[in-house]
Structures are given as structure tokens and as C-alpha cells.
Amino acid sequence: MTTKRIPFVAGNWKMFKTIAEARQLVSEMIPGLQAVKGVEKVLCPPYTSLLAVKALLEGTDIGCGAQNMHWESSGAFTGEISPNMVAELCQYVIIGHSERRTYFGETDETVNRKIKAALINGLIPIMCIGETLQENEAGLTKQVLEKQITGGLVEVVLPKANQTGKVNLIIAYEPVWAIGTGKAATSTGADSVIGDIIRPAVAKIFGDEVAQSMQILYGGSVKASNAQEFFAQPNIDGALVGGASLKVEEFVPIVQAAGN
Fold first, then answer.
1. Is 70 in the active site?
2. N or C terminus: fewer CB in 10 A for the chain?
């Protein structure tokens, strides 16, 4: 069974750009991004810029996403943002990014709680998974990814897919050793990880139809110069882009490559 999956490109701005800088960047990006059809495009700025970015994206086909959220809807959680607060501004939320796992102690259990909370609040989670260099070199990629997928998705109930067949959950495969290092995985290597490990693991949980319909992205040093190579692979449906999403001359060509 083959399913037509719409290409998807999200820009994760991480901890960059003030509100003024965010406004300028988005204003410069909109014309180029709007010109690309047939690709789902999402910008994920820091919390402080979400309101300003959302306002600029009104009336465009570009979505807005947050980089994280708490799983509780309210409470004494100083410095945190709840799912319903995120849902006022965004359609998407990144969950379980390797930087959150590495620096802030996020686990498969907290990822699971956040994914459930995101779905309940009508958000589409972009769930990040990936192995470290040591795990990769030790031949543990399959073991690590399967653990992250099953742990992150335990007892998750997906909303019924819409008319286009879009599943309200996206997975981003981001090998930790390729994030911000300039050392990207090979396109064929990433494709085989997604096709041979990730989709089958998703199929075990949700069934083959969902696994074949789900958008699975690659992330990790994606640039304008290598994007086309990744997007040409049958199992890679797009990218979660880090540093290159902060430059118009990099991010727009990446989205154009997805459109090709």
C-alpha cells in the first residue's frame, strides 16, 4: 500500500531572535515560502516571539509551532507554558528534542505525557527521536529508537485522520550526532532508518495504514545544499531544520527542494 504524504518542513529557531528580529526574519521569508505550493511549512520561534510571528502569518499557508510545553493545563510550574496556552498561538509543538532530553532531563515518560496533552488540546506534536554517536557506533540505533517510540507513544490515542489522510502526529528522526555539528547522516542511511526501523515500530502501535500515512522527517544539519538529496528518498517526508531556518537564503531553498 502506498500513501501520498505531503512534504513537511519546520524551522526550529531554538533560543535565537528577539521579537524585533523575529518580525524582520518572518517578513523577509513570507514571500519565498508562500510561493512554494504543496509543502506544509511551519516556523517554531521562541515563546516570546510566538504572538508576533502568529500575527505576521495570518492569512498565509505557513503554520506556527512552539518548541516545548508542559503536560499540565495549569498549576504552580514556574517558567513553564501549558498546552492550552500554546494552542492559542500554534498548531504544532516540538516534543522531546534531543537538546531537551540532554540538557533538561526529559525522558520517554515526560515525552509521552506531553504528547497526550498536546493531542487533547488539538495540537499536532512533532516528536523527536534519535541516537547518540556512541549508540550509533555500538550498533544500538534500532534498540534506542524502538525504545523511544514505544515509550513516547504508550497509550497514545490518535484523532481520526482527516480527509487528506493526515495523521495528527509527526516524527522527526534526529540522530543526536548530526545536530548542530555540520555532520549530517547520509540520505540513504537516514532513509533506511526511517523505512526499516521507525515506520515498522509505528505500525506495531497504530497499524500499517497509520505508519504509511505518517509524515516522518529527518533533522540534523539539513542545509540548502543537501536538502534535495534527503527529500529524494522515499521514506523522508521533509525536515526539522535548525540553524538553517534562521537564514532566508537557506530556509526558503530547503522548502523549495521539498516542493520539487
1. no
2. N
